[in-house]
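W.,

You were right to be curious about this one. When I first looked at the sequence I had no strong expectations either way, so I just let the prediction run and decided to look at it fresh. Below is the sequence, 254 residues in total, followed by the output.
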Amino acid sequence: EICPQDELPNVCKITGEFFETEIDIYNESSVQQLEKHWKKLRADLKNKELETGALEMLEYDYARAQADFDRQEKMYLEILEPFQAIDNSLSERWSKFESIRKSVQKEISFEFGGYMGKRGHSGQIKFDNAKESLKMIVRMHAGNTRSGKINDMKSLSGGERSLSTLAFVLALGKQCESPFRASDEFDVFMDPVNRKVTLRTLLHFSVENHTTQTILLTPQDISAVDEIKEELEQYSQYYDGFIRLIRMPSVQQP
């Protein structure tokens, strides 16, 4: 007995809906058709078992996969919290870095303009963070004559280019902590007027940053140092012996 007699009509109805046909157990052809469908289902079931394995094996594989999934999910949840904390911290640090970078760039441009202004010129520095590049924009003044904006440093004379480069190096040096700084032939290609102005700028910079030793090397005349020393006495950091001059002996001709 497959099912109770009173449930037989309901079973026939469900079976008919499954096979999309009307089942009449009292009709021999209908019973034969049902048996044909039943045999086909059993054949399909055996083929599936050959392809995927027996039902017991599938249940075993499912249970093992479920256990592995649960283990991986637990590990993921354990990692997720510290990962999110690190990610949030990184985002916060990157935001602070961008803020500091912007502030430093403004200070460098301001200092650059200040050093150029001490020589009677003007200038600014524009930074392009995306391209990782910068551009120096200067206006050179000669007496009452004022040039237009110069974006290409190649268009400047050798002395003007040296002055602009020195202003940039000093502005950048304000942001770099170092026990000493050295500059070799800082007055190259300069005329006597610009050479004196540059020397004055460097010596004032050295006194203002007295905690850092500054070494200047030049083959040019440095007689203007004695005159500049008098100007440096206005600084409280300055004292006799602050500047030490070392002159190499002249090369003797054979």
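Here's what jumped out at me. The first strand starts at residue 122 and ends at 128. And, maybe more interesting for your project: The radius of gyration is 44 Å.

Coffee later to discuss?

I.
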